[in-house]
Design brief:
binds 2-succinylbenzoate; about 400 residues; seven-stranded parallel beta sheet; 13 helices; alpha/beta; binds magnesium ion; about 20% strand
Length: about 400
Amino acid sequence: MTLDSADNAISKDAGQTGDTDQIARLEAIELERVVLREIQLPLVEPFRISSGVTSVRRILLLELIDVDGASTWSECVAGDLPNYSPETIDTAWLAIREWLAPRLLGVSFEPRQVSATLDHEVRGHEMAKAALEMGSWALSSLRSGVSLSHALGGTRALIATGISLGIQVSPEALVERAAAALEQGYRKIKIKIKPGSDHRFVAAVREQLGDQAPLMADANSAYDLDSTGDDGAEALRRLDHLGLIMIEQPLAWDDIMRHARLQRLLETALCLDESITSLAKAEEMIELEAGRIINIKPGRVGGFTSSLQIHDRCFSAGVPVWCGGMLESGVGRAYNVALASLPGFTIPGDVSPSARYWARDVVTPEWRMDGSGQIQVPTQPGLGVEVDSERIESLTVRTEIISRC
Ligand code: OSB
Ligand code: MG
């Protein structure tokens, strides 16, 4: 398969962006308190990537409550360990309590102002910032009577869904899961790879599922351009004839320059995930031609304002984007679904339905995918799903209330 068929997996139906008539007017909000909670949710099966395995997801949920008693939930997508980004749920807890949440209490603000407030003299901690920033969008949407998708400028009623398959014990086990996913309607199948579990695994899936199957690989930074071993450029070049839509983040999380060198050695498009933590990094990728596609995870880039900037910049540069996932609960998923409804999100996201992750989600209705691999974008004000606070209470292992002092 050639690049042509890979291009076919990228829909060309992008709508218009920047239509100011469509942009919702969002009310200012004033927060009275923020409640932090850690819940623990077991995955239906362990999820293995090159840098580690997750069996039980430790999830940091926030409840944002305003001075009139209106409230909404948000999710901090940081993991248990700093093996994806430098943040963890414990560093995020500290950052939110000590430096971030206090700045938003007892002052009136609009969602678009939050990022600048949180970024002032606090470097990094994007996921901690994003949990507050995105929660502010949802609460303001709720109070303004508009859906989160509408608040962001979303244009799609349905979003296309892909699945991210963890590293399996054998090519056979992977082929079985990939075939089942295609059968269920998923529109993109992402295969996690690492040195030693790469070409053989992906080639087996290509062989079994045929030339048209929309496949990609994600290495989570497991390769080293300068190595001559099985983790070097040669291993990645071997993937080049497999007709992948893209190879995601093969090299180090903070190394855009070597991705640019690697992109020159490959026909397959590179997509950056870990490396894109801000608009500036996205611009660096575009300018250096270090990749041709961006996976936007709003948590990784500090929230929605930054996601919208990256989306708009990529849209005008003709760089397709898609919405990545961080094994979110139904709460975090609501934010991803809303973001993925924007016009530049022309590649199916890692925004799978609840049942792919959890025996039971923490929202009702659960997120469902139709037989053609699509999820409906809610139209109700705010998040558009009910959060099951009793269930969350029963899953909670620690709580902290941050209020105006
Ligand atoms: O690299 O996209 C990634 C999950 C945890 C950390 C990093 C990644 C992932 C996924 C899962 O691929 C995507 C999903 O939520 O389904
Ligand atoms: Mg990734």
